[in-house]
Amino acid sequence: MGEALQERRGAALLPRSCCSRRGIASSHAELAGCKMTLTTTPAANVAQAFFYLLLCVPWGSSCPPSCQCTERAGAKAVLCSSRHLEEIPKDIPKDAVFLKLDANSITRIPSNAFRHLSHLEELDLSRNAIEKIDRAAFKGVAAGLRTLDLSSNRIRSIPKEALLALNAKLRLANNPWHCECALQEVLWEAQLDPDSVQDITCHTAPREEYVGKPLLQVLDAGVNFCSVRQRTTDVAMFITMFGWFAMVIVYVICYVRHNREDTCKHVDYLKSLPSTQGHAETTSTAL
Fold first, then answer.
1. pLDDT tens across 162-200, in order?
2. N- to C-terminal Cα distance for the chain?
3. How far apart are alpha carbons 278 and 274 in whole angstroms?
4. Strands 108-109, 132-133: parallel, antiparallel or unpaired by DSSP?
5. Helix 181-189 vs helix 225-272: angle between axes, to the nearest 10 degrees?
6. I need a labelling partner for 273 at 20 to 30 A (CA). Which of 177, 189, 245, 286 fits?
7. How far apart are CA 39 and CA 55, in angstroms?
């Protein structure tokens, strides 16, 4: 009876391969087949239990609690769609290749938000409430990123440095864009998804006639937002230079007038003095 009890106590620490379906060794033969020696001291039992617990822990990158991590074509995919997220999770696995953060409430992409994700190839940030994107938002993933979806957000403008450093195909449709030079440069230089480029529409623009029209259509009509900005800058510089020139002219005029007044006062003062010749004649007469 005591021997059977000892077997049951030790069986709790045996690997699954050494146990029957009920969780304990069913016979002395099975116990003999296990490559381990049972100890009866409490410290040894705790150590063995801790060792087998470690064997059961999955050693690998963890998954954020609000996301689901799966395998797609042999690569890790992190799915965080429709999870009511208000910011980008901090604990995304470093070996993530596909990251879906669409249909959330994210409002901003801060600098270095994905810097630790050097293996990232596809990033979906569509259908959020993104309004601000920092210049270094995608720093660290520029080399390997192939697809970036920013469609259906609240983006009005974006630093061109944040996108022109990428080699990824961009989706920027369905945002309330303010059509300006920076957006025009992105359209010319970035790799935009051809299927969505027609949906990049001017929500606001320097001229009312461009509002509501696709940006590509406006540019095809010969509009150049960068030249408009250049002309505005030239006019501002001209006005500034004219102002400085006018100030110099006014200063010179005031200076000349002031000197003329001083000169006149000095001449009048000299005239008011008795002449030297008259003083000499008076002296000789007296003698």
1. 998 899 999 999 999 999 999 999 888 999 999 999 999
2. 164
3. 7
4. parallel
5. 140
6. 286
7. 19
pLDDT 10s digits, 79-138: 999 999 999 999 999 999 999 999 999 999 999 999 999 999 999 999 999 999 999 999
Burial classification of residue 76, based on how many CB atoms lie within 10 Å of its CB (0-12 exposed, 13-18 middle, 19 or more buried): buried
Rounded-to-integer distance, Cα 85 and Cα 113, Å: 14
Amino acid residing at 165: A
The first and second tokens of residue 245, run together, are: 């020139």
The β-bridge partners of 202 are 177
Query: Shortest CA distance to 141 belongs to which of 76, 172, 97, 171?
Result: 97
Q: Are strands 132-133 and 147-149 parallel, antiparallel or unpaired?
A: unpaired
State both tokens at 88: 């980008």
Helices (H), ranges, 1-155: 2-11, 28-33, 42-56
Q: What is d(CA 171, CA 207) in angstroms, rounded to the nearest whole number?
A: 25
66 vs 101: CA distance, rounded Å: 11
pTM value is 0.62
Q: Cα–Cα distance between 97 and 146 in angstroms, integer?
A: 10
Q: Is residue 100 classed as helix, strand or coil in its secondary structure?
A: strand
